[in-house]
Here is the input.
Amino acid sequence: MKISIVKNVLDANNRIAVNNRVLFDAKKIYVINLMSSPGAGKTTLVERTIDALKCTYRIAVVEGDIQDTCDAERVAAHGIPAVQINTGGSCHIDGNMVHEALQSLNLDEIDFLIVENVGNLVCPAEFSVGENIKVMLLSTPEGADKPSKYPLMFHESAALIINKIDLLPYVDFDMDKAKRVSAAINPKLAIHEVSCKTGQGLDEFYQWLRSQIEAFRATVK
Here is the structure.
């Protein structure tokens, strides 16, 4: 009896992700893979980012959920292309799912693609989709222990966005600890404290994101 091992699954995904990356580079599309636990505020961050940057970049979104289309509908209401991936129970988006979703987008009309992954703090970090960077969103009600419990998410990400700082007076969240442990896991991690509800801190994140996009665009001209 032949037994499949997880490494083979990851290797197969990585081959597809590399093909996606080649396509994105050819089309000069900058891609982020946005990850978090359920309810951390990913879709709200996506909506605010669209509104802040859509006059500068042509944006599209691939939404990942186990089922339903509510998040894609929210995003599409902002006037940009959105494709929904329903994983049917899978806890993450993989390279092949994104490859299939791209068939529904006009890649010649996209500068910046946001892949909003399924809410999960484990599997999304393991599966590349061909993105330029992974971005991790952590909300204050989740607690400051998440970097210690789920270090791979923080190790693989280029940026950590700590959301819902407007709730700091009401939740038990140790900001210093969260930042210290995250930085120990990944010293290159860019950390942004924001409130997607009030807008606090978002301008700094947008500025950082623009710098990443422009650095990429300078390399693919």
In short: The first strand starts at residue 30 and ends at 36. The radius of gyration is 17 Å.
